[in-house]
Amino acid sequence: MHNPKYDHAPRLPEGAFIDLATLVPGAGPLLLEIGPGRGMFALQWAELHRDARLLALEIRRKLATVLDERLTAKGFTHARSFAEDAGEALPRMGPDGSVQWVVVHFPDPWWKKRHQKRLVLKDEFVSQLARLVAPGGTVLVQTDVESRADEYRARFAAAPEFESIAPDGALWVDESPHAPARSNREARAIEDGLPVWRMLFRRR
Ligand SMILES: C[S@@+](CC[C@H](N)C(=O)[O-])C[C@H]1O[C@@H](n2cnc3c(N)ncnc32)[C@H](O)[C@@H]1O
């Protein structure tokens, strides 16, 4: 439902091409977070990495706005959150190879067949990440749903630009490379002792 209270939500500029360098000031390496939700990871990561930059894309206007305001209130000029559908925003972003890390924590809370079109982590999404992530850069995906984990892993396995960097041929990594920064869902799963499937891919 449309909530006019968040009509002022931070939005990306219009146009066919958005230069990522203009969105978050500074020269540090850039982390892109898709669907930050309540934003705990972004806030913690920005605190830990003052020399890097963070850009979050969150489809829900309220969540994107609240996170951006919290980042600003902390004085974090190196981190921003925008109210955008990642599927629509990524194809407009560039230049190619300008993102060092991508994180996608617990995406796709949709289960009904008619909601399939809402899924974030589709083949086109993986192709856009292949274009945007710099060689040697990484993509972390984590979920608490095993069937989704298998599906995501298969999508990345089918993309020649990415290689899994789980140790010794394992399918999953035990820990997030960005710990101790945690997303809200991740922290909750850890607290409740629930399994988390984590996968980490490197851009060749
Ligand atoms: C299950 S929540 C997980 C939130 C957070 N990452 C966490 O781990 O606590 C999924 C988040 O992705 C957001 N989302 C869903 N589709 C999206 C899209 N197309 N673009 C950006 N964000 C999206 C949702 O609004 C929600 O905040």
List keywords for this structure.
204 residues, alpha/beta, Rossmann fold, two-stranded parallel sheet, 7 helices, 30% helix, binds S-adenosylmethionine
Describe it for me?
The structure is a single chain. The chain is an alpha/beta fold. The chain has one domain (26-203): Vaccinia Virus protein VP39 (Rossmann fold). Helices cover 30% and strands 24% of the residues. It has helices at residues 20-23, 40-48, 61-73, 86-89, 123-132, 146-157, 184-192, and strands at residues 18-19, 30-34, 53-58, 79-83, 93-94, 99-105, 133-143, 162-164, 197-203. The protein has a seven-stranded mixed β-sheet, with helices on both faces. Strand 2 (30-34), helix 2 (40-48) and strand 3 (53-58) form a beta-alpha-beta unit. The chain is globular and about 45 Å long. The model has no long low-confidence stretch (mean pLDDT 94). It binds S-adenosylmethionine (SAM). S-adenosylmethionine is lined by residues 34-37, 57-60, 63, 85-87, 105-107, 109, 120, 183-186.
Show unreliable segments. Answer: none
How many domain units? 1
Continuous helix count: 7
- And the CATH topology? Rossmann fold
Structural class: alpha/beta
